[in-house]
Amino acid sequence: MIELGKINTLKVSRSCEFGYYLDAEGKTTSEDILIPKGNIVGEIDVEDEVDVFVYRDSKDRPIATMKPVEAQVGELAYLKVVDKTGIGYFISIGIERDVLVPFREAPFELEVDKKYLFYLYVDKTNRIAATTRVDRYLHDTTHYNVGEEVEGVVYGKHSNGNLVVAIDNTFRGIILKSECYDDISIGDKINARVKKYFDDGKIQITTRKPRLEEMGELEEIILSYLKKNQGSMRFNDKSSPDDIKKYFKASKNAFKRSLGALMKKGLIEQDENGTRLK
């Protein structure tokens, strides 16, 4: 049985002037699938068995290609949005026929030329389609160690500001709003650390570095900010958490620790008006 949107191993049954036909094991040869010359990689001949990706062309006919694809039906993949139309978005999977993402399958606005995490499926019209509603296809795990570095893609944002992340395109992770000190958007690929496990199985991750490493980096950021502003700034350890997050991408506690470390090193001084280089 031919699986649309997947790699199939098919036998070359006959040639024609514009390519070859592959045996679809139907009742008649009219069900055989064309592989156009432009979709052939290397050389093939009648009776060969070839691995091909099967999809539908613009006239809704099944067609095959030996060209590599970025995703198959039933898979999660990080893919680029290439167009927005009146019926939805289109994404590229590496072949000449782009895949539709209906508006109902994109609960947030997608940007053309940006990548997001998608799940590919076959819709009711027997065409390949995609969705950004990927949570149901992810899993919980205790596979990672606390403190371990992981890579993920942000696939959603809760109303409370928490970000949900697909770790290795497979497992559910979450970044709490209180841990979001970087400008992170849906679709961004991030590096993070495992912080803890929740009772429901989700993994809490953070983009913040370990405390000592974070302090060292933040100290450099503070010194650089001061040097760019004639050696002084209005921020001190009494500044609001929102201002600190906006200008330094850090928590107030981390900011206070870094100011304290710089004062101990004799590099800065502060009062009620702000902070200055010594």
TrEMBL record:
Cross-referenced InterPro entries: CvfB_fam, CvfB_S1_st, CvfB_WH, NA-bd_OB-fold, S1_domain, WH-like_DNA-bd_sf
Gene3D superfamilies, per database record: Nucleic acid-binding proteins, Winged helix-like DNA-binding domain superfamily/Winged helix DNA-binding domain
Any GO MF annotation of the entry: DNA binding
Keyword flag DNA-binding: yes
Residues in S1 motif domain copies: 147-208
Keywords: DNA-binding
One Pfam assignment: WHD_CvfB
Keyword flag DNA-binding: yes
Family the UniProt entry places it in: Belongs to the CvfB family.
Name by which UniProt lists this protein: DNA-binding protein
Organism: Clostridium sulfidigenes
Lineage, top ranks: Bacteria, Bacillati, Bacillota, Clostridia, Eubacteriales
